[in-house]
Design a protein that fits this description.
Helix content is 45%, strand content 12%. By secondary structure, the chain is an alpha/beta fold.
Length: 275
């Protein structure tokens, strides 16, 4: 690749120091975009906590993040209101939660809404499968991982992201409810991020539904126990948090919210879901 050097007026170039102008970094950025197999942050390379990198590296990384956002916005712009279904990737087809998530996807399609998931196996596959086989819109926002996360075949629209924070932005931006099936750290991350964004008024107060009362019982006791009693949260924080064991009840919760949203839209100027 040709070297492009840009020196200030009156400054001489030395063998040890060759400042490069913005054009040089711009050229590198374009080349990196075209090199599909080149990774800014390869899997398993722990660079986030290593402090500042070179300006060229940081610029290329920012460009890749920006491009991921643009790809997501352009692809999801016309999918319509979504209900996002989260849960473990490790459930198999014979598991009761898989079967109930599949039933839920079918019911979401019956409402004329889009089912959105993380695009992988387990609960994500079940939600997509129910919507897909019912003729509804089924969207998957997948993530590049070294294990587990392979795209399921029940998607009418599929995206793949490199960065978790870009992927989570898509879930929040296009969803009107979150349904949280049993899961692990990733599921808890998505649950508590949504509750934090609602609590801090960064997004509208949409329903967050916990599916499987026995699974979430211990966590809810902890939330209503030390967290609430010690005033780390307030009772109003539970206003949009629902617990159910019934796909039918989820449909009722979503339908009520849709009606509330419709009434609000007729009395207030339209606004973005994300504030």
């Amino acid at each position: 690749m040709e070297q492009v050097t840009c020196l200030p007026a009156g400054r001489q170039e030395t063998s040890n120091q060759q400042p490069k102008c913005f054009y040089f970094y711009y050229r590198q950025m374009i080349i990196m975009t075209k090199e599909k197999n080149t990774r800014i942050i390869p899997p398993k390379e722990h660079v986030y906590l290593e402090g500042p990198k070179s300006r060229g590296y940081e610029l290329k990384f920012a460009w890749r993040v920006f491009w991921q956002f643009i790809k997501g916005f352009r692809t999801l712009h016309f999918v319509g209101p979504c209900i996002t279904v989260f849960g473990s990737a490790r459930f198999k087809e014979d598991n009761i939660y898989y079967q109930q998530a599949r039933s839920l996807g079918k019911r979401i399609a019956g409402l004329g809404l889009t089912t959105m998931t993380g695009g992988g196996p387990g609960i994500m596959e079940a939600g997509n499968r129910g919507a897909f086989q019912a003729g509804g819109m089924s969207v998957g926002c997948n993530i590049e991982l070294p294990f587990e996360q392979k795209p399921n075949p029940y998607q009418t629209l599929s995206l793949k992201f490199k960065y978790f924070f870009v992927r989570k932005m898509m879930f929040v931006k296009y969803s009107q409810a979150f349904v949280i099936f049993p899961g692990g750290f990733g599921t808890l991350d998505e649950l508590f991020e949504s509750l934090t964004l609602i609590q801090t008024h960064k997004i509208h107060n949409f329903p967050v539904v916990l599916y499987g009362s026995s699974y979430w019982k211990g966590m809810l006791e902890w939330l209503r126990g030390p967290m609430l009693s010690e005033a780390k949260i307030v009772e109003d924080d539970f206003r949009r948090l629902h617990v159910t064991d019934s796909p039918e009840e989820i449909v009722e919760i979503v339908s009520r919210f849709q009606k509330e949203l419709g009434r609000a839209d007729t009395t207030q100027p339209s606004s973005s879901h994300i504030k």
